[in-house]
Specification:
The complex is a heterodimer.
Chain A: H1 2-14, H2 16-61, H3 63-82, H4 90-104, E1 107-113, E2 126-136, H5 138-150, E3 155-164, E4 173-183
Antiparallel strand pairs in A: 1-2, 2-4, 3-4
Helix pairs in contact in A: 1-2, 4-5
Chain B: E1 8-16, E2 20-29, E3 34-43, H1 47-57, E4 65-71, E5 76-83, H2 91-102, E6 110-115, E7 130-138, H3 139-151, E8 154-161, H4 163-177, E9 182-188, E10 193-199, E11 202-204, H5 213-224, H6 229-236, H7 241-245, H8 247-250, H9 252-269, E12 273-278, H10 289-296, E13 299-300, H11 305-311, E14 314-316, H12 328-331, H13 371-416, H14 418-445, H15 451-461, E15 466-473, E16 477-484, H16 488-504, H17 506-511, E17 512-522, E18 529-537
The chains are: A alpha+beta, B alpha/beta.
Chain lengths: 185, 542
């Protein structure tokens, strides 16, 4: 053992620079291995953080647009909610149709609120059905329909039958309608 | 080559003779004298003293110290012999000669050479019979000497049979001095004494004298009545008057045998012998030379060493103690010879390295001559690798630090904008909720078309002679019934045009895929046709 040690010491004395360099090489090689592994982890972490940051800034750049859209959506929603019908408010609901009748001079010969389909527990809205029969000229009925379809309350025409009046009046027309009005659930 | 300074090389001059080890630090430049900057003498066998001296004087050279070495092996061959030079081309010739003449059983184990006895040059393998100096030394002795040098960190660049340069130096000196008489060089070894006579015909090698230094010791032991060897040794090294008075008795045995050899030379060659030089005797034994010369009937050789050094290109540095005569053998190793240098430089591992030179090294048993370069390359590679690893480590540290900094910066920016992000998320959530409710309302209330717009479009596209009697809604569209007051051929054309016009209408065409005539009949007793058009809605893809 001491012989080997002496041989080693002799080599160290003969090649001091080489021995120091090789020792340094071993130490640095080991350190490099760990640093290399650490560098790989750091690179992944840095890339992930960078992408996260860039995505954040990209999203923040559209914040104003989101706010505008959100405000517009809130306004639209408020308009819808403000004009929702209430199924239990039968008089109010029918009055809505009669009010249009007044302005268009059409004759509402039949108007009734039908039973609605039961809505789901978490449903946001309810479609309240109505049955209407209108009599009047082409222009009057067209005006009534236009007012109904573009009025504040959201109305959906489910079925219709458009025919000449039974009375032999060439200008008389009859329109049978079933509509659904958006209401509170 | 870049790092190999050829202009000035510091190396060691070393001679290992039967009595001493003589060492000197020399600095040899390509041009100019050999400068000796330090020197020392050690008893033969004082390896520790030599090691200490080397450590002090060559401390910078912690690797091999290049050395020019000469040695006097106990078994050496240096004999003047008549040879046939042309037979030297046959390697076996010299070996057979040595085996037969000098009873050397295994000449292949010896390093052999032939030199001219007059000029000391290598004998060319041509020509007729003539005298030559047959030189040889056993590889065993060379191996031992090499190992002895290597043990002292000395790498022999030359390892010479020491007596040859000595004979060459004396021959040159005699020639320069114009000496007509021959000179005897005596090497007193332990059990025998060798004599070399340098005359006008070159070196002669008489038979060895059977008495050596042991005979002097024996005589001194008797004369001084001493018993222990160290006492005798100490007494012989103390050259007082009592010793000098009895000195002729001590050397009588050697001188008695040497004198006939010298006389025989004189009678044979007709050249008188003038002086005797006792080689290798240390200063404490230098007293032997004079009584020995007296016994032989000649005078001792006295050399002005300082003057001789200047003639052979050796210059001691300041502070170096002047060399005595016993340094002649050592200094002759680096002395410039009188003979011109050969035209073609000999190979480094060749035995013959010039006049009176015989390099005995066994190159294979020595570390490579490129050792310095190899060590430099080894160190350079190792240092380069370490430097590369260091740079790689630094780079890894730098990029790791950079990545960590970037990550920290991004995290800080994310943290700084956390409040805005929360607000954005809240707004987005609000928008999504509102959009979902609007979407629900839209799905509930959206019609495939507005009935009022449909009626207006039908009114626009209705032909003048067409009367619409009813419009009924269907799941798939609507059914339009009416009458047409035209002849059948006209009615058909009118209906086709009417359908095409309706499909071309922006409102109707956008909502209905087709308009088909499903009924067409004439009323009784009238040129009026009843028809039925079926409007099919376009299928809305989800």
């Amino acid at each position: 053992m001491s012989g080997l040690l002496q041989q080693f010491l002799a080599v160290v004395r003969r090649y001091p620079a080489a021995v120091i360099s090789l020792t340094l090489l071993l130490v640095l090689g080991s350190a490099d291995w760990f640093l290399w592994k650490r560098w790989g982890l750091l690179a992944v972490e840095s890339e992930r953080t960078r992408q996260e940051g860039e995505a954040m800034f990209l999203a923040l750049s559209g914040h104003a647009r989101i706010q505008t859209q959100s405000a517009e959506a809130a306004g639209a929603l408020a308009y819808i909610d403000r004009n929702l019908a209430t199924e239990a408010d039968l008089a109010g609901n029918l009055d809505y149709f009669y009010q249009i009748e007044k302005t268009t001079r059409v004759k509402l010969t039949n108007l009734s609120q039908l039973s609605s389909q039961p809505a789901a527990a978490d449903a946001a809205y309810l479609a309240i059905p109505f049955s209407l029969r209108l009599s009047g000229s082409y222009l009057q009925i067209l005006t009534y329909l236009h007012a109904l379809e573009t009025g504040p309350r959201l109305v959906h025409v489910k079925t219709y039958r458009f025919a000449q009046s039974e009375a032999n009046n060439l200008d008389g027309l009859t329109l049978d309608l079933t509509v659904e009005m958006l209401g509170h659930p | 080559m870049l790092f190999n300074n050829r202009n000035s090389r510091r190396s060691l001059l070393i001679e290992v003779n039967p009595y001493q080890i003589l060492v000197a630090g020399i600095d040899r430049s390509d041009s100019g004298p050999v400068t000796i900057d330090c020197a020392a003498e050690f008893d033969n066998g004082d390896e520790a003293g030599l090691r200490t001296w080397l450590a002090l004087n060559f401390e910078r050279q912690n690797a091999w110290v290049p050395a020019i070495a000469g040695f006097v092996p106990p078994e050496a061959l240096l004999q003047r012999e008549s040879i046939l030079p042309r037979k030297l081309v046959d390697p076996a010739y010299l070996a057979d000669l040595v085996r037969e003449q000098y009873k050397i059983d295994n000449p292949q184990e010896w390093k052999l050479a032939t030199l001219s006895p007059l000029e000391g040059e290598q004998v060319a393998a041509e020509g007729t019979q003539r005298p030559a100096l047959v030189c040889g030394v056993s590889y065993t002795n060379v191996q031992l000497m090499q190992q002895r040098l290597l043990d002292q960190r000395l790498l022999p660049y030359r390892l010479e049979l020491g007596v040859l340069p000595l004979l060459g130096a004396i021959a040159s000196h005699q020639k320069r001095a114009g000496e007509k008489r021959a000179m005897v060089v005596v090497v007193i070894e332990q059990e025998h004494t060798l004599a070399y006579i340098i005359g006008k015909e070159g070196v002669h090698t008489p038979a060895p004298v059977r008495h050596g230094f042991a005979s002097i010791v024996q005589a001194a032991r008797r004369e001084f009545n001493l018993t222990r060897a160290d006492e005798v040794r100490d007494r012989l090294h103390l050259a007082d008057d009592e010793l000098l008075l009895r000195a002729s008795k001590f050397v009588r045995a050697i001188g008695r045998d040497l004198k006939p050899l010298v006389d025989s030379y004189e009678m044979t060659t007709g050249q008188p012998v003038g002086e005797i030089y006792c080689a290798y005797l240390p200063p404490t034994l230098a007293w032997i030379a004079e009584p020995l010369a007296q016994v032989v009937g000649r005078s001792p050789f006295v050399l002005d060493c300082a003057a001789w050094q200047s003639t052979v290109g050796i210059a001691p540095a300041e502070g170096v103690i002047p060399f005595g005569q016993h340094w002649l053998g050592a200094l002759s190793l680096v002395a410039e010879g009188s003979a011109p240098a050969p035209d073609k430089a000999p190979r480094a591992d060749a035995a013959y390295q010039g006049p009176w030179r015989m390099d005995c090294r066994i190159s294979a048993a020595l570390p490579s001559s490129d050792l310095v370069r190899r060590r430099f390359i080894t160190n350079a590679i190792a240092v380069t690798l370490a430097s590369a690893a260091l740079m790689f480590t630094a780079w890894l540290l730098y990029i790791s630090q950079t990545l960590a900094s970037e990550t920290t910066v991004w995290r800080q920016r994310i943290a700084d904008n956390r409040r805005q992000v929360d607000a954005l998320n809240a707004d987005t959530q609000t928008l999504a909720t509102a959009a979902a409710r609007i979407e629900t309302a839209y799905k509930l209330m959206v019609p495939p078309y507005r009935l009022s717009e449909l009626l207006m479009a039908l009114g626009r596209t209705r032909p003048p002679r067409m009367q619409i009697e009813s419009i009924d809604s269907l799941e798939t569209g609507l059914v339009l019934r009416g009458t047409l007051h035209e002849s059948s051929d006209r009615a058909k054309i009118t209906l086709d045009h009417c359908r095409q016009a309706m499909l071309a209408d922006p409102l109707l065409g956008a909502r209905f895929a087709s308009i088909g005539l499903t009924s067409f009949s004439r009323r009784e007793n009238a040129d009026t046709f009843e028809f039925e058009l079926n409007f099919k809605l376009k299928v809305v893809k989800p």
